[in-house]
Design brief:
Distance between the termini: 137 Å
CATH architecture of the domain at 16-38 and 65-150: Sandwich
Shape: elongated
CATH superfamily of the domain at 16-38 and 65-150: Immunoglobulins
Order of helices and strands: HHEEEEEEEEEEEHEEEH
Structural class: alpha+beta
Organism: Volvox carteri f. nagariensis
CATH topology of the domain at 16-38 and 65-150: Immunoglobulin-like
Biased composition (Basic and acidic residues): 7-21
Largest sheet: 6 strands, antiparallel
Number of strands: 14
Region (Disordered): 1-39
Family: Belongs to the 5'-AMP-activated protein kinase beta subunit family.
CATH class of the domain at 16-38 and 65-150: Mainly Beta
Pfam families: AMPK1_CBM, AMPKBI
Strand content: 25-35%
Number of helices: 4
Length: 269
């Protein structure tokens, strides 16, 4: 194997890459700002332990690969129109542009970033833009860039929530007493109360254009007698439904025949 020399590809004049190169942002403010993670850390080792472990990389896993930094999925979204939208930022020192996927009227991309503070900007149809609805800041060249702060995910401690739960009710609060005589003193109703809501017993409306109330489903297909308002006839009615229409049929039966039979019985006596 021989030594190989890598050459960077120089873009040609007039190409799209040359157009974006002239429109590139100013020098990046540098590596993203970092802070200590939000999880408990081990105490600082003694001086002799530090000197003995100095220069040794952090390895983990079966294959002893170097430990990788924890990354957090971050959604970057552009919602201000355009045909082709890209994003470039300090997460890779302003070196690459990544296109956003269009979904309806929005453009989104999901990036895996370690905890820190990052600046980024959108390229919408070849023009640099920032989202006014997202946090923004000025860089060293007084350019406005969007900024995002990525926090390390810390799972909730469910054991700590148990102290706020109400205490369980005592077993003595659950009982089943034996019914007493007062529970049987009142007679049950002869008919459920909702079965009295028949149209025969609705008061007549004063307005001729008034609409009857919509019957309840529990009174359908039952025969009802009207309350004793008409002494000359027996009035019965039933309500049926066909799709969304309700039909109430009212039948009148005269009471004269009953009176004739009563008179005949008196004469025979």
């Amino acid at each position: 194997m021989g030594n190989t020399t890598s050459h960077k590809h120089e873009p040609t004049v007039g190409s799209d890459h040359d157009h974006y190169r002239h429109a590139s942002p100013p020098i990046s403010p540098g590596s993203p700002l970092t802070y200590s993670p939000q999880i408990p850390m081990e105490p600082i080792s003694r001086a002799e332990e530090v000197s003995s472990n100095r220069g040794a990389p952090d390895f983990h896993g079966v294959a002893c690969w170097p430990a990788q930094p924890k990354v957090v999925p971050v959604v970057i979204q552009w919602s201000h129109g355009g045909t082709h939208v890209e994003v470039e930022g300090s997460f890779d020192n302003w070196t690459t542009r990544q296109p956003l996927q269009k979904s309806g009227k929005d453009f989104t991309i999901i990036k895996l970033l370690p905890p820190g503070v990052y600046q980024y900007k959108f390229i919408v149809d070849g023009e640099w833009k920032y989202d006014p609805n997202q946090p923004a800041m000025y860089d060293e060249m007084q350019n406005v860039n969007n900024v995002i702060e990525v926090h390390e995910y810390v799972p909730e401690n469910l054991e700590g929530v148990s102290g706020f739960e109400p205490p369980p009710s005592p077993p003595s609060s659950y009982n089943c007493p034996t019914p007493v005589a007062d529970d049987y003193a009142k007679e049950p109703p002869a008919m459920p109360a909702h079965l009295q809501l028949t149209l025969l017993n609705v008061p007549p409306a004063l307005d001729a254009q008034a609409v009857l109330p919509r019957p309840q489903h529990v009174i359908l297909n039952h025969v009802y007698c009207q309350r004793g308002q008409n002494v000359q006839a027996l009035v019965v009615g039933t309500t049926t439904r066909y799709k969304s229409k309700y039909i109430t049929t009212v039948m009148y039966k005269p009471k004269a025949r009953r009176r004739v039979l009563e008179n005949n019985n008196l004469r025979s006596d």
